Amino acid sequence: MTHGRYPIYKGLQKPLIYRGFKGKFIYWGIGSLIGGLAIGGLIGAITNLFLGGFATLALMGAGLAYTFMKQGDGLHDKTRHRGAFIHPAHLSISYETEPDLSGELSSAIKNRQTDENREKDNL
Predict the structure, then answer these.
(1) Where is the composition biased (Basic and acidic residues) (predicted)?
(2) What are the phi and psi torsion angles at 30 (to 5°)?
(3) Can you say whether the dihedral through the CA atoms of 36, 39, 41, 47 is positive or negative?
(4) Which one, of 43, 71, 40, 70, lies nearest residue 58 by Cα?
(5) How far is residue 15's CA from residue 43's CA, in Å, rounded to a whole number?
(6) Which of 16, 22, 36, 27 is nearest to 72 (CA)?
(7) Whole-angstrom Cα distance, residue 108 to residue 15?
(8) Residue 49 and residue 55: Cα distance in Å, rounded?
């Protein structure tokens, strides 16, 4: 019994694009339209119909422009640092030389000699 191979559709591997908006920015654009319509309608109901219409168009346009600008930065918000960064190396690891204990050793030897001399004097 031989097993046949069947092609598996793995998607387009590209973000969804609608009228220039990609991925999550589609929702941002829809939110800009709905938010501009709601706030502009509220302004129109409270003050003047013409002022509300102008506010609706201005808020929708500003929201869509902001969405386009944010989309230019990329799908994921990353801070982009311009320039070269040099990290100084503060390493003090030394494998070839041993620490200088000559001062400590000489004082230990002198203390031992004085202890031996005291023992001889006591005998």
Answers:
(1) 112-123
(2) -65, -40
(3) negative
(4) 40
(5) 36
(6) 22
(7) 74
(8) 10
